[in-house]
Specification:
The chain has 224 residues and is an alpha/beta fold. It has a single domain, classed as P-loop containing nucleotide triphosphate hydrolases (Rossmann fold), CATH 3.40.50. Helices cover 32% and strands 25% of the residues. The chain is built from 7 helices and 10 strands. The strands form 2 sheets. The protein has a 6-stranded mixed sheet with strand order 6-7-8-3-9-10, with helices on both faces. A 4-stranded antiparallel sheet has the order 2-1-4-5, covered by helices on one side. Strand 1 and strand 2 form a beta hairpin. Helix 3 packs across helix 4 and helix 3 runs parallel beside helix 5. The protein is globular.
Amino acid sequence: MIRFESVGLRYGAGPEILRDVSFELERGTFAFLTGPSGAGKTSLLRLLYLGLRPTRGLIHMFGEDTSALPRARVPAIRRRIGVVFQDFRLLDHLTTFENVALPLFVDGEKPKNYRDDVMELLSWVGLGDHANAYPEVLSGGEKQRAAIARAIVGKPDIILADEPTGNVDPQLAKRLLRLFVELNKLGTTVILATHDAQLIAASEGARVMALKDGHLGISPGGAS
């Protein structure tokens, strides 16, 4: 499903942020992406989301070479990927329900067909009582949970999450982890960038992809 071949990335004329990154992930992999601040975790996720193109090397997603991908094809690939950003990216003029349901709405589904599913998901992430609230009244942790719900509501093939439990308490972090694990059991490929060693330790069998000085090391576990 995902293959990187000797990928390098630099911004402008600066030094390379990522150097000779190569790995393969099969469908259904659960992996953690770790590394110190500034190691390039967010940059790697942006490459996976096609938000950036590599400076060198090849990236294959769903069997396609993304370097040769026509711009018109990019949205179709992105619709197969759910992303949880650190800055949440909720739309201020939409309620929590509308933000979470946005991927379904954009795909042309009728609200009456997805209302129950969205409400069930909001309940699971602890936002059932905030469905009609706007982002300005939500706490940082509540916004993060809404962003997670939005990323997974369309049942994407891949979920990329950048520090998805960074603003929640340990108990809720474990609950959200269970949600990602259950989605993974259904066949979704999950990549979580995190500093949380306890979260990683609680996920037996997951692969650990560690970035350091621009290079990637991978410990075995899970699929692939």
